[in-house]
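Summary for the steering committee. One of the milestones for this cycle was to obtain a three-dimensional model of the protein with aspartic acid bound, which we needed before selecting residues for the alanine scan. The sequence and ligand used are listed below.
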Amino acid sequence: MKKIALAIHGGAGTIRKSMITKELESKYREGLKNALEAGWKILQAGGTSLDAVEASVIVLEDNPLFNAGRGAVFTHDEKNELDACVMDGKTLQAGAVAFVRNVKNPIKLARLVMEKTEHILLAGVGANEFARQMEVEFETDEYFFTDFRYRQLLTAREEHKIQLDHSGVQSSKSNPKSLGTVGAVACDFLGNVAAATSTGGMTNKKFGRVGDTPIVGAGTYADDKTCAVSCTGHGEFFMQTVAAYDVACRMKYKNLSLSEAANETIEHLRESGGEGGLIAVDAVGNIALPFNSEGMYRAFITSDGAAIMEIYK
Ligand code: ASP
């Protein structure tokens, strides 16, 4: 029987043990565990990698601790604008949404773009109109309001910074600089891989800024012939280095293993000045989780063994 595998992330950044209380750390761990279980149940029952990554990301979107769905960061204008992307490595089909508002689970909407339209990426008002037509769940502005995110915005605005969620804002134990984008990658029993990523983007972002997350090849990518990848970090650098596709290219053209390719991509990102990490899986269930930041919320499980959950370097 083929090996199955699932990896998830909850963002990368300046995450030090000294910055997080024990209580908060256990909440993060619980959040990761719940998300991992949701996807793993599906894979174990013989479900598809696509269903598994969507299920894991939905759990993280519903958790206010992570910068996606409910816990999304604030834009300069005090709004929550959400980006998400899903990609199926079997068909190379992808669906994505950018700066949608009040949609409870942007990853579900991204999948609907993939399955119900002839397009790949819908943005803004049009994406919201599509969400209404698809009758997806909407939530109020209050649902998306989290006090610590709002304080992050006030600090970033005061300092005139467009703020990556993980870095730069004065951190404290109750407000660590580390709460990021979420993502999942999986390989199912048939050796099909899939990737899903969802984010609120950057604190204090302006003018309809869209990051790497919903851009196929930058923040999210999947191809059964190589790997599935979900990225987190300073989006502009992931776009410049086309990071997710870069991992696949290094496997395809340089004949590298998944972990060699993923490490090279993160090294290239570092050389380009970018901070962050990625999770990746190949079609035989290998997993790689490299990052160049101080930490990355991450967890994985394969049919070889128990679940592993880690936060710090
Ligand atoms: N990559 C995301 C963006 O730039 C942010 C993150 O990963 O936290 O929109």
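Key point for the committee: Residues 11, 67, 165, 180-181, 199, 201-202, 211-213, 219, 232-235 surround aspartic acid (CB under 6 Å).
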